[in-house]
Amino acid sequence: MSQPSFNPLPSPHSLADYGWDEACEHAFAPHRAAGLIPARIVRAERGLCQAVTDTGPARAEIPVSAGTGDPLSAPCTGDWAALRPAAGGHAPVVDSVLERRTVLVRSTASRTSHGHLLAANVDTVVVTASLAAPLKHGRIERMLALAWESGAQPVVVLTKADQCADAQLAAAEVAEVAPGTDVLVTSALTGQGLDTLTAVADGTIVLLGPSGAGKSTLGNQLLGEDRLATGAVREADGKGRHTTAWRELLPLPGGGVLLDTPGLRAIGLHDAQDGLEQTFADIERLAQDCRFTDCRHGREPGCAVLAAIEAGDTPRRRLDSYHRLLRENAYAASRTDARLRNGREAAKKDIAQRLRATYQFRERQL
Questions:
Q1: Is the torsion defined by CA of 278, 275, 78, 241 positive or negative?
Q2: What class of enzyme is it (predicted)?
Q3: Are 179 and 58 within one domain?
Q4: Is 215 annotated as a binding residue?
Q5: Is 299 contained in some domain?
Q6: Residue range 192-251, pLDDT digits in tens
Q7: CA-CA distance, 325 to 277, in Å (whole number)?
Q8: Could you give phi then psi for residue 212, rounded to 5 degrees?
Q9: Residue 308 annotated as binding?
Q10: Is 239 annotated as a binding residue?
Q11: 52 and 179 inside one domain
Q12: pLDDT confidence of residue 344
């Protein structure tokens, strides 16, 4: 299998340019005492990663054993890592990963019980949706659930406002499905809303959305140069092709770090209960006034959520979406529980087999 190729970083950057602060320094102290080197993973591939250190960029090896027990523990883009220095003609090696402040996870495309890491230590998740095509509120709700669950602050950015007849009306509709989240209207063509986005988004910023939503174009505006490849969308269905092939960190000229991601075709939830509750905070608030504490908002009498729907204050689609995502999340959680349970049973069987073999050996010696 060919090794992944990496483009070198365009100019030298320090760890501070990538978000290193006093908290990172304090957390790294034991690793520094052990002679390890602090780094941030800029891009991760199979067995290798591009990292930045205070002495410059480094290409480091990722141990084969990394993430074998739990894929979510494997090094990923955005991680702060401790590198074992290069020695004997070998490249530096990722020795360990520092505890993550935030982590963005979705379910795997293969629908296994494991989650798929998207990014770590993100501060702002920019959920992008194009105004050049009909908005899919359900998709926005999914991405918001992932963003809230990560621990980062989500921001909804509606792109291509110059191609929409009434962008402000669309923004008002999205605001109703994004409680507690800023909803910005932007246009890369006219520059609309970009200053506001720069003011709202800070720290490590990840762009999240489907292909064709304008993530790379938006990223170029934030970077101040055309660093990210962009492409046109199909007129037939408004879908775009992947122009970003991997997740990579890029320092922003005004401070902070940008993480551009490939377009997400599937946005499955993985253990996102808290994220769902924040995404549907309006439903959660209404539920507090239901007659029964375990109300499922179906046919129960005294349901405050159903009353709000009948009064026209809450759309039925909103509740249906909430129920659908709750079921999906519960199913994902059940598969994870089943995997852990099977793992424990396999471990017990292995111990029992070893004990039987030991007893049989002792009996033969008598």
A1: negative
A2: hydrolase
A3: no
A4: yes
A5: no
A6: 999 999 999 999 999 999 888 888 889 999 998 887 766 554 444 444 444 444 678 999
A7: 11
A8: 90, 0
A9: no
A10: no
A11: no
A12: 53
164 is in an annotated binding site: no
Digit-coded pLDDT (tens) for 23-75:
999 999 999 999 999 999 999 887 899 999 998 899 999 988 887 777 888 99
User: Looking at residue 75, which CATH number applies to its domain?
Assistant: 2.40.50.140
Task: Give the whole-angstrom CA distance, residue 109 versus residue 146.
Answer: 15
Q: Is 290 annotated as a binding residue?
A: yes
Q: Is 303 annotated as a binding residue?
A: yes
The answer to whether residue 238 sits within a structural domain is yes
Is residue 232 situated within a structural domain? yes
**Is 293 marked as a binding-site residue?**
no
Same domain membership, residue 191 and residue 132: yes
Residues whose CB is less than 8 angstroms from the CB of residue 183 and which lie 6 or more positions away in sequence, other chains included: 156, 158, 171, 174, 175
Any known ligand binding at 214? yes
- Asked if residue 256 belongs to a known ligand binding site, the reply is no
- What is the distance between the alpha carbons of residues 291 and 284, in angstroms, rounded to a whole number? 14
Domain that holds residue 158: 103-260
Asked if residue 192 belongs to a domain, the reply is: yes
Total of domains in the chain: 2
Angle between helices 167-176 and 137-150 (to 10 degrees): 50
